[in-house]
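Milestone 3.1: sequence recovery, worked example.
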């Protein structure tokens, strides 16, 4: 009996020690934010990190006007041309830099001359030089993307309307919703849209801040696109009043560098600029004109993502020679940090992209717009942002029995595949993870003991 009592006592002590150790480890690993810290009284399915939107529809006035313009234009084979343009824009790459082309040409020329000299024998130097020149040009055409600028006339503008307007509106609206939700005090009075096209940014911004916007300047070098955008505003009736007031169309940016706008946006425009140097200068000009927020949107491809990362690097680290507003740039979204994008360091670069479901101009089946975006701000972070460590979901969370698989980008600049459970991360964080979608943010505290960094990253799945 004494022996049994002694053994029972030892086992009980060990159990108590294990419970203490487990409790300490759980506290160290999970470190969940308390419910009062991040939910702000909201239910889990609408926690502050939720920025996704349900399936979006174009504003009724815009939808009716677009259908009227398309019907009156009588563009032949419009569905096929719209699909072809969509595929072309999605697969479009940046123009090759002149320095890269010259370097490749010199390398090829040296290689071909070396092979000719190794063969020996007598040869006509001029004939060989001409042959090598043709060979170099042929190889350059084969290996470099042939980039040409798009010139929109009225007909191509209508094709673009059928192909991209609804999806472009959805992407911009989704990005602007993040500003609206995370900074509810932001009430912009002025908007500048660079590369405005059909004016979808103005419509999306008006849907978010119709009560405060008093000046919307749309800049696009294409006169026919500006005309189409104005027709859309007037419901395809030149005698009608515009649905959105105080919209001004320009073909050039305002000259004065001191003129600023509360919100500056540029959607699917960087890809239309020929060189990296010109893109850098365009981004700096837009930043000079930004009083609060700058939004850049591009296709959710490697090219689109990398152009945005170039812009991000320019805004955070390049010294602008013309400075009228000394407030520094800080990344508002989607990155939860200002370190180099960790996706660029992966062996196989996968773009950081997001999606928004929307209803097309015609048809009853929703479609998905996959896009990349960057929001940079001059505003100071709200207290909430400083207190809570938010990580970005880079893929759809995969909910399983009592756990959720989450691919995250953390505030320390690391990617992580994290399995969220109620026992490790707290009931509130777990329920938020189950309610979140691709692109939302989760309130998690990074901990080295609970780390599973990604060294590879595949395309997000919808499972």
């Amino acid at each position: 009996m004494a022996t049994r009592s002694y053994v029972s006592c030892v086992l009980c002590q060990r159990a108590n020690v294990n419970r203490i150790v487990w409790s300490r480890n759980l506290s160290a690993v999970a470190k969940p934010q308390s419910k009062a810290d991040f939910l702000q009284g909201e239910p889990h399915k609408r926690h502050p990190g939720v920025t996704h939107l349900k399936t979006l529809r174009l504003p009724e006035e815009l939808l009716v006007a677009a259908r009227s313009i398309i019907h009156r234009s009588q563009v032949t084979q419009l569905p096929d041309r719209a699909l072809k343009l969509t595929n072309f824009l999605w697969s479009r790459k940046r123009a090759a830099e002149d320095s890269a082309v010259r370097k490749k040409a010199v390398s090829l020329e040296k290689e071909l001359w070396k092979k000719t000299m190794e063969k020996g024998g007598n040869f006509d130097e001029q004939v060989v030089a001409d042959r090598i020149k043709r060979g170099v040009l042929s190889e350059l055409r084969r290996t470099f993307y042939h980039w040409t600028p798009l010139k929109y006339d009225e007909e191509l503008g209508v094709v673009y309307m059928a192909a991209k307007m609804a999806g472009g509106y959805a992407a911009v609206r989704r990005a602007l919703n993040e500003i609206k939700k995370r900074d509810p005090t932001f009430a912009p009075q002025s908007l500048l849209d660079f590369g405005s096209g059909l004016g979808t940014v103005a419509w999306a911004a008006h849907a978010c801040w119709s009560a405060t916007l008093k000046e919307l300047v749309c800049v696009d070098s294409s006169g026919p696109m500006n005309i189409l955008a104005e027709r859309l505003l007037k419901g395809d009736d030149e005698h009608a009043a515009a649905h959105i007031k105080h919209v001004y169309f320009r073909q050039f940016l305002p000259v004065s560098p001191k003129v600023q706008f509360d919100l500056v946006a540029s959607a699917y425009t960087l890809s239309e600029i020929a060189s990296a140097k010109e893109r850098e200068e365009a981004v700096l000009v837009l930043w000079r004109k930004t009083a609060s927020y700058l939004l850049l949107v591009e296709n959710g491809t490697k090219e689109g993502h990398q152009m945005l990362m170039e812009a991000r690097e320019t805004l955070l680290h390049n010294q602008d020679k013309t400075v009228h507003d000394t407030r520094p740039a800080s990344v508002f979204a989607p990155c939860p940090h200002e370190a180099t994008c960790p996706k660029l360091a992966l062996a196989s670069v996968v773009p950081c992209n997001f999606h928004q479901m929307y209803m097309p101009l015609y048809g009853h089946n929703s479609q998905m717009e996959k896009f990349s975006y960057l929001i940079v701000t001059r505003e100071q972070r709200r207290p909430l942002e400083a207190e809570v460590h938010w990580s970005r979901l880079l893929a759809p969370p995969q909910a399983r029995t009592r756990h959720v698989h989450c691919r995250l980008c953390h505030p320390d600049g690391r990617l992580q595949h994290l399995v969220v459970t109620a026992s490790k991360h707290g009931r509130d964080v777990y329920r938020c993870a189950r309610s979140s979608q691709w692109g939302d943010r989760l309130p998690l505290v990074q901990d080295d003991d609970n780390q599973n960094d990604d060294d590879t990253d595949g395309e997000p799945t919808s499972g």
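The chain has a mean pLDDT of 84. The radius of gyration is 27 Å.
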